[in-house]
Amino acid sequence: MQNTIHATQAIVTLDVALPGIIWGWMITLNMWAKSIGTGVILVGAFLLYRHKKEEMPNLRWIMPLIAFVFLNIFLLFTLTDLHHPYRMVNIFLHPHWTSAITVGAWMASLFTGLITVMMLIGGFDAFPDIRRHCSIAKKVRANSTLYEKIFPFVVFLAIPVTLYTAIIMAEASARELWQTPAEVMQMMWAAFMAGSSALILVSGNWSKEVRKDLALVLAIATFFSFMMYMGEYFFSFKSAEAEATLAFVHSGGAYNTEFWFGMILGFVIPFFIAIGNMKSDNKTLLRFAAILALVGLYMAKDVWLKIPQLLNLS
Amino acid sequence: MKLGFLVDLNLCMGCKGCEVACKVENEVPLSTWRLRVKYIDIGTFPDTSRSFTPLRCNHCESAPCERICPVSALHYLENGIVNVDSSRCIGCAGCMMACPYGAIYMDPETNTADKCTYCAHRVESGMMPACVVVCPVQANIFGDIEDDNSHISQYIMEHQGAVQVRKPEKNTHPKHFYVGGGTQTLDPLAQQRLEGFGLFNNVTHLKHIGDPHEGVLDRFLAPFKSEEKYDNRSFVDFDNKDYKSELTEGDN
Question: Could you tell me where the beta strands, DSSP code E, fall in chain A?
Fold first, then answer.
């Protein structure tokens, strides 16, 4: 051993075990599901700005439905990851406002509430035979215009709900790999990637031009997100701890494999398929790209969440 | 008053008395530590030396754990101690992700975050922290760093230029100081951890240790089937009034 260790280096000969990964797959799933939940709203708003409603006949109800489902997955796993899930109520009863967890919980809850209203209005309007005599359904249908009134606010709120996880990661100041400007943009790109992918999967009867725009959003989001990951993965020279974390992953192992699988499956392949789809419309291939993007995004998020936790802090 | 801690690493002999005293005083469960003494070997055989570094919460003036805690379970006391109230903790582990010193752990028995509190309960009664009392060489120095006449203030002034904190670049303003330390003892990036050459590389939780409700589903079911009186039940009792009232009754 004395011949292989440089004299100036110190070796830990007695210490406690490292705590290992604290925020695991549930947080990955949480972030991934939130990206879909807010992404469909942001991309849906972009489509409504660019196209007539008739080109996307089911968007009005399916967009809030997808957002509702994935926001509830996000909230469920947020709750499940807590060691005391019922004490979540303390965030609302005894909030500590310097915490991005608190601010995020309030915003995400409000956002989910508004999405629920939109989903009910959109659903009851789209399917007039459902619960025709139910008083609640009648009331919802009578207030149908509320949908269009709250939609701009929901789109505006989708941005901070998308981004607050990046601020939590910023407040997790022990993990230097999570640099705030990069994480803020990565969260935004992830929302556009996930949102466009989710809408691609339900865009079967939409016009070709709408799908072209969805492919465009997917291509732009995968391209810029991939570029940012590459920059962070290879050139994080600014921080000693980030450098040490990445050096560990560069040396190989499961996280190295997962990262590159995520990059190729979720970013590179969907990018080229989406670019190709803008020239000639191919629904099946575009759906394949959307599924790959969602799988790859999960893998990339998973690696980026876990690897800084492998570094010993003391 | 601003309480601070100083460890003179030139005096520490690695007896781990402080570690044991802390465990006993605070009933720290197996597999977790509020205070630990790390052994580091420096140099090449035969010119090697071993140094000992006690590591505990730094009670930062700008504590990232306090900032990220969504329910103020981690909070400042008037004397500068960053205290933790386990009855408030929701177990999000945000503090564990935020602490740059890895000083916070999830208590396996209560499923809440916990850490060194400078023995706030002892300090409140006018006593020194357990680790200070037990140290045979008085390497642990504790006191008011705002009082120029306190032992710790005088020690800092005597060793000006040689007093260090861990990771000053984090801008957390730790109130835990070291004398006689160096990069190799205080910076974990300057140390190698060789698998197989250290003790306790892979400590696992024993099955009969810890909260029986640590499973994901059990966390939700715990309040309805808990056998322990306070275990997982106080989610509706933010200020832990039941527990406090019982303590008062016990005192009477």
Answer: 10-14
What are B177's two structure tokens? 């100081």
C-alpha A219/C-alpha A216 separation (Å) is 5
Q: Contact, A217 vs A278, CB < 8 A?
A: no
If contacts are CB pairs under 8 Å, which of residues 76-95 in chain A contact chain B?
80-91, 93-95
CB contact under 8 Å between A13 and B188, yes or no, is no
By C-alpha distance, the chain A residue nearest B94 is A172
- Residues 6 or more apart from A88 whose CB is under 8 A from it? A79, A82, A105, B90
B-chain residues within 8 Å CB-CB of A89?
Answer: 235-236
Contacts with A175 from chain B: Cβ below 8 Å: 97
* ipTM for the complex shown: 0.91
Task: Collect all residues with Cβ–Cβ distance below 8 Å to A275 and sequence separation of at least 6.
Answer: A215, A219
* Fold assignment, A25-310: Formate dehydrogenase/DMSO reductase fold (1.20.1630)
With CA atoms as reference, the chain A residue closest to B236 would be: A87
Which residue of A11, A25, A30, A239 to mutate against B (max B Cβ within 10 Å)? A11
Which range, of A57-66, A195-204, B27-36, averages the lowest pLDDT?
A: B27-36
Which residues in chain B have Cβ-Cβ distances shorter than 8 Å to A14?
38-39, 198-200
* In chain A, domain spans: 25-310
Tokens describing residue B131: 């680790």
Q: Where are the beta strands (DSSP E) in chain B?
A: 3-8, 36-44, 47-55, 74-76, 82-84, 105-107, 112-114, 140-144, 163-164, 176-179, 191-192
Query: pLDDT tens-digit profile of B134-175?
Result: 999 999 999 999 999 999 999 999 999 999 999 999 999 999
CB-based contact B89 A96, cutoff 8 Å: no
Q: What angle, 0 to 180 degrees and rounded to 10, lies between the N-to-C axes of helices A208-235 and A254-263?
A: 150
Give me the domains of chain B, ranges plus CATH numbers: 3-190 (3.30.70.20), 216-251 (no CATH)
Which letter does DSSP use for residue A81 in this model? H
Concatenated DSSP letters of A100-166 = HHHHHHHHHHHHHHHHHHHHHHHHHHH-TTTTTT-HHHHHHHHTTTHHHHHHHHHHHHHHHHHHHHH
